Structure formats: C-alpha cells, structure tokens
Amino acid sequence: xxxxxxxxxxLTAASAAGGxxxxxxxxxxxCLLEAVFKRYGFDFREYAxxxxxxxxxxxxxxxxxxxxxxxxxxxxxxxxxxERLLLDLSINVTAMFRDPSFxxxxxxxxxxxxxxxxxxRIWVAGCSTGEEVYSLAILLDEEKVYxxxxxxxxxxxxxxxxxxxxxxxxxxxxxxxxxxxIAAGGKRAFADYYTSAYDGAAFDRxxxxxxxxxxxxxxxxxxxxxxxxxxxxxxxxxxxxSLQERVFxxxxxxxxxxxxxxxxxxxxxxxxxxxxxxxxxxxxxxIYRKVKS
Length: 293
Ligand SMILES: C[S@@+](CC[C@H](N)C(=O)[O-])C[C@H]1O[C@@H](n2cnc3c(N)ncnc32)[C@H](O)[C@@H]1O
Known about the structure:
The protein is α/β, with parallel strands linked by helices. The protein has helices spanning about 1-10, 15, 20-40, 50-65, 70-75, 80-90, 100-115, 130-140, 160-165, 175-185, 240-255, and strands spanning about 120-125, 150-155, 170, 195, 200-205, 210-215, 225-230, 255-260, 280, 285-290.
C-alpha cells in the first residue's frame, strides 16, 4: 500500500509502472540538475526537492514528454527548452508593495537609519520582473533619500530583468497595487507614478535613475560590492538549508557593519550560523541589523 502511494505521487506515468519509481525519479532529477549546471551554468542542485519536482513535472506535461530523462535529452540540445524550464524553476511571482507591512516597517525603522549616511548602496537580490524595485524606488523617493541611493537589482534570470527594465506592468493589477501602496503608507496618488497605455501601466522612467539591473546567481556568484542594505524576499524559501546558509554567508560578506538585512515574513535568520552577528530591527518583517563583523 505504502509503495503504491509513493508511486501515485510520482512524476511520470512511465515511472509509476516500475517497482523503484521514486528512486528512479530522484536519480533522473539529480542527473537533470547536473546537466543543467554543466551545460548552462544554472545551479539548482540545492533547491528544495518538493518544489523542484512540481515544476519539472509541469514542464514535462507542457513539453509533451513522459520522463525526466527525455527532458534532459531535449534541453541539452535546445536552449529554448532550457529557457522555458528556467522560467518554471526560478518562480517569478511578485507584486508591487507586496506585503505592505514590510514597506511600512522600512519607512518607520530603516529609512531613519539610511538618512544618517551621505550615500547608500542597496542590493535587491532576486528582484524578478522588478515590481519590488519600483516599489522601493517610490518609497525612497517619497522619503527623500532616493537621490543619494543606488539600487543594485539582480536576478538569476535575464528574461525577467529585461521585463524589469521595461517597467510596464499589467493595468489590471493596478487596483491591487494601489491598495498595497496605500497600506504601505504611500504619500501620493499611486496613479501619479504610471501612464496607462492599452492594457499596460508604464512606470515613470525617472524611477530607474538610480537603479542598476544585473544578472547574478546567488548559488554560484560572488559578492560584488559592500552594501548598506540587502533586500532578499521570497527567494531562499526555494533553497535547501545548505544553500540558504551559503547565501547568508554571501550576504554577510556583502554587508557593511551596521548594514541592514531585510528578508520579509517568509524567511528567517534565526536558525542561521550568522544570526549571532545581527540584532532584530523588526521581528515580524524579519529585518535585521548587522552589529558584529
Ligand atoms: C518569487 S520571486 C521573488 C521576487 C521578489 N523578491 C518578491 O518578493 O516579490 C523569486 C525570484 O528569485 C529568483 N531566483 C531564484 N533563484 C535564484 C538564484 N540562485 N540567484 C538569484 N536569483 C534567484 C527567481 O528568478 C525569481 O525571480
């Protein structure tokens, strides 16, 4: 019975027929991730397996394939397949002023600290299609610190960065985003920040005046600057513990003393080896300050 249950949760029809289906799938998935890394340099080997399996399963269906090995064969030779899998694996869901209480906490507790510096560098890691970056730019502009800030916005996926640079988001989402903006303590009319064109909302280009978008892989790339603040939300939830720990190390190396690490509600520094070096600025929003080097 237990064996049958395991099979029914398996990824493919073909694997469900075999006696060692679950092990086979694990081997195939490991091989696929190894192939992706060797061929394209994207390292998903330490991502949480449950989420990976769901994503790969979906891609198999969409490509009309029945085994992970067949997907591996195809993507080794066809970069377009890799691009589609990358979109599946990198999970780009995002929103403007997502979790508005996070932005209120930034306004109340972090902005006063940023104001003590003549210039600040902020890294937004895993910025997806940019909604978070535009939200931060708006907030910092309203708080009158944007003109002495540089935002470095990075993601593993060049495709989402291209969309972020464009800054055109679905008009249909503007009602929700306006609600978020108000809940986050927005000080103007949200519609002042964009122009409607057909079904898109094109955001004010001047919001990008202090933004640098760049591809960066948290799993394999090094630190590239020393920052006053790092924002990384809804990214590490997809990583296994070992990779989370490496990323915390990377952030720790990249943060100056008294720098801010803002993780949002879904992630926490609590279990990490770096935790002792940080004090909590906002417990609910998981915003920390590095107090020891
Ligand atoms: C769910 S989105 C979060 C977007 C935004 N931070 C937010 O909270 O709305 C996760 C983003 O992390 C990016 N990502 C996943 N693995 C990454 C890695 N190893 N290095 C950099 N970015 C990564 C994905 O491409 C995706 O855009």
